[in-house]
């Protein structure tokens, strides 16, 4: 599903934020990406999202060399990817329902289909009963679950999360990770960047460890 071949990323003319990264993830795998602050986790995810281009090497996703994608194809490419951020980036003046519906509205999905899909996504994260609420009325953990519902409403083949539990206490963090495992179990390929080593150790998945932009360990699931 994802292949990095000798990938390097340099911002401006400075040092390499990522250097010589090689790994392959098969479809349906779940992987944790870990490393210290500044190790390059977000940069690696941004290359997959095509928010950045590599300075060297190749990134292949779902069989496509991303360097070969024409600018006009990028929006279609991104639709296969759901993204969850640490601060969830919800729109605070809109209801939970409207936040989750937004990606489908942008794509021009029929309103009837939007309603069905938004409710299915909210149901999966346990928040169907809160669809009319505003984000401010929800706890931090619930807000993050709305962010996850919005990321999966399009049924993406690939789900990326950048420090999704960064602001949550340990029990809520476990709950959020369990949700990612649920989506992985139904076939979604999942990459979660996290520096929470204790949590990662409890969950048995492959771990890619970055240090100063290099991939220093690739441990298979225990
Ligand atoms: N747009 C950018 N322009 C210049 N330098 C950048 C940019 N984005 C990241 N960097 C640098 O690249 C290096 C890797 O950053 P990155 O955000 O990928 O690491 P990270 O492991 O995700 O860290 P954190 O957990 O703190 O977000 C850092 O030194 C950072 O300062």
UniProtKB/TrEMBL annotation:
Identification of the protein by name:
Cell division ATP-binding protein FtsE
Keyword Transcription set for record: no
Pfam families linked: ABC_tran (PF00005)
GO annotation (BP), single: cell division
Organism, as annotated:
Pistricoccus aurantiacus
Subunit-structure text: Homodimer. Forms a membrane-associated complex with FtsX.
- Role of this protein: Part of the ABC transporter FtsEX involved in cellular division. Important for assembly or stability of the septal ring.
Q: Which gene encodes it?
A: ftsE
Q: Which SUPFAM superfamilies match?
A: P-loop containing nucleoside triphosphate hydrolases (SSF52540)
